[in-house]
Each structure stands twice: as structure tokens, then as C-alpha cells.
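Try this one yourself first.
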């Protein structure tokens, strides 16, 4: 089932119905298809008489024009019809198939953004691995629902399902919730030159099994595949051709780990995804030396590749809630101490990255790596076989500070949030207080005293107060806003004593940045 010429006035729905005759004789049948709306009312129906041979699978085409369709419009209005196709003989239903139908139009415009039904629509994206502690990938529907509730809470509009086909239940829920999906096959990182048959089969199955899910906008062909270049270029070109043969209406995407936009391995699809982790794997979060940072890189590709469709497909930093420091310096990445991943560094990482992404239209969308901590093989980086780049802990119980950074930037819910609530015992008498607020400038009080120097940091959601003095012992910090008569507040408690300073890993002066 495909869609053409979609607008508020009309939409052309094209159906391909395949039927088999298992009897030994020709049968006269009727293919009867109805489009049924959310209220179980028939919108349009079509009947096609057909003489079915006992030999071979037959393909019957039906075209239906829907006038004044109720469009599927993402999170704002994920309106679903259903298509019911029946095989009838002598007015008796022999077989019936029901599929979802969300009538919509997707479009990506280079250097402009993603458009849904001809209106610009943000791709606020998170990635998701389908796994849980003690379950692996065998998640229950309740597990999927909890993940989706958290993804909706953060304000994400899109999910990249990495790096393999996931539960049909999850795709179906994305249809009904209005989340926009990037689905992909597990052709990842390594190339042995033996991948072709498996990759082609998996892509064909991914598309055929999920073709009718209106939430899916692109098919992922690979993630960070490398040399030998000639083999990889040939195979990814074949994968793109296969995707276009199976589904000419959706986009294809390849993901580069080279950090080079015009690398020949990664320009064989409609979209190029770029995975880049400034300050984690290479470069710096911010430009302190001669290393490249995210802002410099974004400026460069904005000038050189304005006609390319580019998505920032992965970025993130590991954060263990039990690892805390008062000042997020330029340490805490994979090259510092493999056992120490402070939450504050990840917060700094995400603040700088999102503040850069949102002002560069070269990025048609972006995807945080990852929504949830996930299992990995044991590596030198982690004592536990775990990747801690999640915004939420593996057990889904702890939402880390960066989670609330994105919630404040993306969600329509009012957010006022004080960071570093787990960094309780503090050794610096003078400190910076960081607040995320989508309700305007917050009022900050420390031990009942109003702090006057609250100011914007990296964007309009990020607020900081520098050189805030703490008293010895307990300190009560409250941030509060009052917008349209509604008060939103947050409260944390810090304990100050100079004795705590000697037990912490401290940043050097050059590592200290505003509000981080």
C-alpha cells in the first residue's frame, strides 16, 4: 500500500494485493477493499472481480482516491484509518487482512529541514536499543510501553531504531502515537566481503514486513561500514537500489563514522547520517586548543555541503550517576579514566552539542545516542558490560541530568530543573548553579536568599548563576518561575565542607566554562 499526491484536498492510495489459489480449478472471486476511519465509518471502498487461476501467485492492483483526508500529523494528530481487504466468493468472505493507514507526506529539504504534510516539523531524535537487564531483546509489551512513555516525556518526535529490526508492536505503537521512525538493518561496522546475501535479504524483509507502518520515513542501509571501499560501495549501491525497488516512496539513509561528508562509501543513499562524538572519541566539546570542536565542524559543513541531506545520526557521552564532580572539565571521556564517567561531563557535552545543532539548519534532524543505557560486550572502557551513554539508566529508574536538558528544549511541558542533584557533598565554597527552564528566567534562591546574577548560557533554555556562595553544612537551592499565574519550581540540597574537595577529581582553570 503506497500513497501519492497527498494533500488536505485528496490522496491517492495504491494497493497491491497478492492472492494464491490452492484449489485445482479456476475460481471467480472478488477483491473487496474498504478504508475505515477512526470511528469505524467506511470512507471509501472498491470492488475488483477477478478470475483466479490455480497456477502461481497473482497480483491485483487497486487504486482509491480519498477526498478531504484526515491526515496523520505526527504527535499533534496521529490519525489512523485502517484498510480492510477481503477475498469474497458468492458473498462469502474467504480471507481478510487489516493494515494501518496513516495518510501523510514526508519531505526532506537540504539545509531547511523535515516537512510533514508540507509543514516544517522538527526531528527531535533519540536512538533506542531493544534490550533490558535479564531479558535481552525479549521485551514485553509493557516494557515497550514504558520506553515509549519516557521517549514521549522527553519531547522526542522521532526514534532511530538501532541497529536492527525491532518489535512489530513497537512500530505499531509509534504509528498510533505519532512518533516518526528510522528503521534499519544490522549491517554495522565490520566488512568481511561476505555480507551481500544476508544484508540484501534482511533489507527486503525489513521493508516488506513493515511497509504499511505510516510512522517509518527512512530505511537504514548500514551504520559505519568501512573498507574494503570498493566492495562496500558496490553493496550499499545495491542495497539502495533494492530499497527503491521495494519502496520508491521512502528515503534511504547511510551512516558515516568517517566524519567526512563526501566519502564515497557513504553517498549511495538519499540521506547521509553522520556519527560524531566531539570530546568523547575525538576533538573537543569546545575549542580549547587546536582540536576541532562541534561548532567549528558544523560551521565548516554548513558552507561546503549545503546541498546535501545530512542528519546528525549519533552523538553522546557516557554518564554513570554514581560518578560525580563539581566542575565538568575536559575529562570524563573515554580517553581519561576508563572507570570514571561523571554525569557532569555528559551534561556539558549535551548542552554544547544541542545548542550547536539547533542553530545549524544543515542538520535536517539529529539523534541522541542513546535513550537508555544498554548491554555491550566487556571492553576496556567499562567494568560492567554496559554502555552508559543513555539519558536514562538501564533499569529505567534514573533520568540523568541531560534527559531534562532535552525535555526542557523539546517538550511542550513546563520544565524548571536544577542540575547536579546527585553531587551532594561539595568542597568548593563558590560554585556555579545551572538551571534548565523553558518558562523564562527563573528566580534562584540559596538558603532563602535571592541570587541576582542569573543569566542565559548557551541558549534560551540554559541559565546559570556563577560564584554562588555556599554556607558550611546544608544548603537549600530553589529555582522557580511564575508564568501566566502558574508556579513551577525545583529544589535540591547540597552539603558544603572544604574537606570534600580533596576527595574529588578537579578540573584545571582552563577547563572551566560558563555554567558547566
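Now uncover the answer:
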Amino acid at each position: 500500500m503506497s500513497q501519492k499526491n497527498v494533500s488536505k484536498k485528496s490522496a491517492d492510495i495504491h494497493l497491491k494485493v497478492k492472492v494464491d489459489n490452492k484449489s485445482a480449478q479456476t475460481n471467480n472471486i472478488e477483491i473487496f477493499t474498504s478504508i475505515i476511519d477512526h470511528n469505524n465509518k467506511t470512507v471509501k471502498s472498491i470492488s475488483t472481480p477477478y478470475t483466479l487461476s490455480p497456477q502461481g501467485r497473482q497480483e491485483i492492483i487497486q487504486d482509491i482516491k480519498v477526498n478531504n483526508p484526515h491526515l496523520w500529523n505526527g504527535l499533534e494528530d496521529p490519525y489512523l484509518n485502517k484498510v480492510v481487504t477481503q477475498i469474497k466468493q458468492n458473498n462469502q468472505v474467504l480471507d481478510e487482512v487489516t493494515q494501518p493507514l496513516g495518510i501523510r507526506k514526508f519531505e526532506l529539504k537540504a539545509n531547511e529541514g523535515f516537512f510533514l504534510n508540507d509543514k516544517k516539523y522538527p526531528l527531535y531524535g533519540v536512538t533506542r536499543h531493544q534490550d533490558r537487564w535479564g531479558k535481552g531483546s525479549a521485551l514485553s509489551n509493557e516494557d515497550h510501553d514504558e520506553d515509549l512513555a519516557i521517549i514521549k516525556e522527553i519531547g522526542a518526535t522521532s526514534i532511530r531504531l538501532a541497529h536492527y529490526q525491532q518489535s512489530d508492536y513497537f512500530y505499531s505503537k509509534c504509528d498510533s502515537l505519532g512518533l516518526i521512525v528510522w528503521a534499519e538493518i544490522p549491517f554495522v561496522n565490520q566488512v568481511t566481503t561476505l555480507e551481500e546475501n544476508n544484508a540484501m535479504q534482511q533489507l527486503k524483509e525489513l521493508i516488506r514486513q513493515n511497509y504499511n507502518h505510516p510512522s517509518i520515513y527512512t530505511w537504514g542501509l548500514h551504520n559505519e561500514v568501512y573498507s574494503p571501499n570498493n566492495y562496500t560501495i558496490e553493496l550499499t549501491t545495491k542495497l539502495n537500489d533494492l530499497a527503491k525497488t521495494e519502496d520508491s516512496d521512502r528515503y534511504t539513509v547511510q551512516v558515516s563514522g568517517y566524519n567526512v561528508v563526501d566519502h564515497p562509501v557513504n553517498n549511495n543513499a538519499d540521506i547521509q547520517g553522520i556519527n560524531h562524538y566531539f570530546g568523547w572519541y575525538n576533538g573537543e566539546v569546545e575549542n580549547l586548543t587546536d582540536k576541532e570542536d562541534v561548532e567549528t565542524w558544523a560551521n565548516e559543513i554548513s558552507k561546503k555541503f549545503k546541498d546535501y541531506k545530512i542528519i546528525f545520526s549519533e552523538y553522546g557521552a557516557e554518564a554513570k550517576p554514581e560518578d560525580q564532580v563539581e566542575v565538568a572539565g575536559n575529562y570524563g571521556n573515554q580517553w581519561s579514566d576508563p572507570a570514571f564517567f561523571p554525569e557532569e561531563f555528559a551534561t556539558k557535552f549535551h548542552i554544547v552539542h544541542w545548542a550547536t545543532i539547533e542553530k545549524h539548519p544543515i542538520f535536517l534532524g539529529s539523534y541522541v545516542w542513546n535513550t537508555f543505557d544498554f548491554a555491550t560486550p566487556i571492553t576496556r572502557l567499562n567494568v560492567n558490560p554496559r554502555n552508559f551513554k543513555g539519558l536514562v539508566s538501564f533499569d529505567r529508574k534514573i533520568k540523568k541530568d541531560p534527559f531534562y536538558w532535552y525535555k526542557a528544549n523539546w517538550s511542550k511541558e513546563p520544565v524548571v530543573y536544577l542540575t547536579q542533584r546527585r553531587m551532594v557533598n561539595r568542597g568548593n565554597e563558590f560554585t556555579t548553579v545551572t538551571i534548565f527552564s523553558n518558562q523564562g528566567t527563573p528566580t534562584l534562591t540559596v538558603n532563602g536568599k535571592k541570587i541576582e546574577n542569573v543569566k542565559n548560557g548557551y541558549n534560551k533554555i540554559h541559565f546559570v548563576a556563577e560564584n554562588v556562595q555556599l554556607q558550611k553544612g546544608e544548603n537549600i537551592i530553589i529555582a522557580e518561575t511564575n508564568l501566566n499565574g502558574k508556579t513551577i519550581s525545583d529544589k535540591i540540597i547540597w552539603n558544603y565542607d572544604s574537606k570534600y574537595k580533596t576527595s574529588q577529581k578537579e578540573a584545571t582553570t582552563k577547563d572551566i566554562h560558563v555554567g558547566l
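Discussion: The helical segments are 141-154, 168-177, 196-210, 229-246, 294-304, 343-357, 401-410. The mean pLDDT is 93.
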